[in-house]
Description:
Layout: E1 5-6, E2 25-34, E3 37-45, E4 49-51, E5 54-56, E6 59-66, E7 73-79, E8 90-98, E9 101-109, E10 119-126, E11 133-136, E12 142-147, E13 156-162, E14 170-176, H1 185-193, E15 199-200, E16 209-212, E17 217-219, E18 222-231, E19 239-247, E20 255-258, H2 269-272, E21 280-288, E22 291-298, E23 302-309, H3 310-317, E24 336-337, E25 356-365, E26 368-376, E27 381-389, E28 397-398, E29 420-430, E30 433-441, E31 448-455, H4 456-460, E32 470-471, E33 479-486, E34 493-499, E35 502-508, E36 522-525, E37 536-539, E38 544-546, E39 549-558, E40 563-571, E41 579-582, H5 593-596, E42 604-612, E43 615-622, E44 626-633, H6 634-642
Parallel strand pairs: 27-29
Antiparallel strand pairs: 1-23, 2-3, 3-6, 4-5, 6-7, 8-9, 9-10, 10-11, 12-13, 13-14, 14-15, 16-18, 17-18, 18-19, 19-20, 21-22, 22-23, 24-44, 25-26, 26-27, 27-28, 29-30, 30-31, 31-32, 33-34, 34-35, 35-36, 37-39, 38-39, 39-40, 40-41, 42-43, 43-44
Amino acid sequence: MITLTRNPDNPILKPNPENAWEADGAFNGCVVKKDSEYHMVYRALSRPQNHQGITMKVSSIGYAESQDGQNFNSHKLLFGPTEDWEIFGCEDPRITLYEGNYYICYTALSVYPFAAYGIKLGLAKTRDFQTFEKHPVTTFNSKAMALFPEKVQGKMAALLTVHTDLPPAKIALALFDRIEDIWAPYFWEDWYENINEHTIPLLRDIRDQVELGAPPIKTQDGWLVIYSYIKNYVSSDKKFGIEAVLLDKDNPRKVLGRTMEPLLSPVADYELQGEVSNIVFPSGGLIENDMLSVYYGAADTVTCLAICSVSELLQSIRPENKTFNINYDKSDGKLVRFEGNPIISSVLELDWQAAGTFNPGAVLNAGKVYILYRAQSRDGTSTLGLATSSDGLHIDENLDYPVYVPREDFEKRPHVSGNSGCEDPRLTQIGDRYYVVYTAYNGVSSPRVAMASISVDDFLKRRWNWDTPKLISLSGVDDKDACVVEGKKPNTYLWFHRLGDSIWLEITDHLSFNENEFLAGSVLVYPRSDKWDNVKLGIAGPPFETKEGWVLFYHGVSQPGSIYKVGALLLDLYKPTKVLARTDYPIFEPEMKYELEGQVPNVVFPCGQVVISDIIYAYYGGGDKVVGVATVPLEGLLNKLLGRK
Length: 645
């Protein structure tokens, strides 16, 4: 594992007690090089003084220069808090040289005692470090902003950290048509309203915190960003570390690779003791030849330097070009999990899916797989998200907003805690519409089956004009795991659902339900006390047609252990109440860590599948946390069901 090597002369910048404005701190330095000169801006912390009638330490922006990037001298006060929107301090500057101007982004404190609503961003523009044009920037809680040194997608660009004081924080991308947009309130109001469209996914645990470190550095492989990753941020046992991420050159929201462990953690005495102990905080970075220099604040007191090889760092975080081979030789008609699983995991910065992304339905259209998955927010609300795949295995796109949300009282909870929403979708096409049948739960009443539909054209064009959802199962009865498909006989529709511990089937001649009409039918299959599916059953994905009959995957719960496993049924095409075959042993069961652990352990839970070139791709939830895919040749599965060799 690659790490940063500390400069033996650390700290390279210390507070000067002779300067009252930096007597207690000179840290979080950021450096830009022009010609042969290195310019550093840093956070200077004064000794306690009377400021605005309050005795406090005041942060200002200091400046130092160097000929080698290591030995900095000529400390001077660059600017301090002079405007109402920054009157209680200017902190943590990041400097970028862009088209002949130096842009210094910094944290502006407008209230004391410090509070999230008064912690925002400011910007100072200068050509000569003598005169400055200052602007308030963001209209919401934010810190740690830096401009890119060149245009991205033909626009000025910046990275910034949103909600630093209202965790979880998120690092996000902003693109500006005009320089004036950087400090235009209307720009930021619109940008903030659509924050999920700008977020870069970096959090690994909801208890952690991220914050931008150095301004983005361009490499041949993409934009290298050094940032702060703080583990256990919401506890008293915070662990500060410096990490790196490689972003796509043209689309910096796309993560190409990243470190998964710190490049540097607090170890040296000057990192362990100071104004705030046990802190290493990256604030600047430069690449010269093959050497990356990372400037960082130590213990909120001094500025330090650490280095590593750029090529070695990029090699360590550059994604591997893995080829996943699927071997069916020993599958014996069983599903074989994709080695690249999980294919969908929560983006923790997106609140609506922070708790889990799982239990996906799926449809195939024009060679592309559309995966409609259940997403659960931190507060337990389930919505539906959408991802696509052109090969059935790798995700091409995963939308950053839910495409289906709770709209009716029967799927909205009346209180603030507990689970609720739209769960476990099964998606099918009938005519020119997609029908989603799902579990609706308001956190109070028994779960019920609900249905909504949308035109295929609207779905593909992302016009989310779903019709009004309707409950189609009885009140007061726990009913879920449902779907509808068009039957082989004219004007017939097959409705599968779970009542009690069994799978039921009802056949109707319509898709609409009157006000007092609900799913019923009769039991299709029961649990088997002497087999693996001995507790309860429910369908997996909707049944699909084959030359031998309808194939229906189902989940069965096994005791001991309450383990969710998968089996298969073969039903007569024209008389689907007739079971032609049933697997005596599971064709898929939890084995991997992401299936054995999660919100609900020991779970594989498919809700959809597609058939591509005679291969079945089954999409499933693992541990009520992630989405995986498993495959099996259609002929192999039929042979297993029919006992053929």
